[in-house]
C-alpha cells in the first residue's frame, strides 16, 4: 500500500493535492491528519500549513496481480490472470503457455504460489482475512476428481482384504478430499497419521 505525506494551507487542500498525486478518488484512501495547521493572524502572520498522511486502501486483487506477475515473469512464463473477488474469497485463474511449470509435481508449485499469494494479500492484519484460490487449466477440479476415484478404489481394496491401507503423503487439501470422499461409507474409516510434510491418510475397516 502506497502512503504519502502532503502539506497544504488546509486539510482539504492537502487532501486534494494527495489525490492528484496518487491518481485515485477520495473513497480509495484513508487519511490521517498529522497537523491541522493554523491560519495565523490575518491569515498571514504565524500561519502554519496543514499536514496529512494519505494511504491507498488495500486492493487484494491488485496486490495479487502484481505479485504473481513478478513471480511468473521471473519464471520465464508469459501468462494472463483472471481474478474474481467475492465474499472474502479471491479466485485467481492463470492461463498461458508452460502451465505445467506453474502446476509442478502434483500441484506443489501451484500450492506454493497460492500460499505466498495469500501471505501477500493478507499482509495487513487490520483488514478482514481474504482466502485465496489459485488454479490453472482446471487443475484443482481434475485433481479432485482423480483423488475421489482413487479413494473409492482404495476403499474397495480395503473392504475386500480387510486390511488397512496407507496412502502416500499428501498436503492438507488433498487429505481433506480423501476423507470427504469416504465419509459416507458405513464400513470404512479414515484418519491421518504422521507429521507434515509426510502426513498421510490411512483407510481401514470400521470396527
Q: Which features would summarize this protein structure in a list?
A:
three-stranded mixed β-sheet; 6 helices; 27% strand
What would your notes on this structure say?
- The protein starts with a strand and ends with a strand.
- It has 6 helices and 9 strands.
- The radius of gyration is 26 Å and the shape is elongated.
- A hairpin with a 2-residue loop joins strand 4 and strand 5 (89-96).
- The chain has 207 residues and is α+β, with helices and mostly antiparallel strands.
- The mean pLDDT is 88.
- The strands form 3 sheets. It has a 3-stranded antiparallel β-sheet with strand order 1-3-2, with helices on one face.
The share of residues in extended strands comes to 25-35%
Sheet/helix structural class: alpha+beta
> Widest sheet: strand order?
1-3-2
Low-confidence spans: pLDDT under 50, at least 5 residues?
Answer: none
Secondary-structure element series = EHEEHEEHHEHEHEE
Instruction: Note the quaternary state here.
Output: single chain
Family: Belongs to the KhpB RNA-binding protein family.
InterPro entries: Jag_KH, Jag_N_dom_sf, KH_dom-like_a/b, KhpB, KhpB_N, R3H_dom, R3H_dom_sf, R3H_KhpB
Region (Jag_N domain): 5-55
Subunit structure: Forms a complex with KhpA.
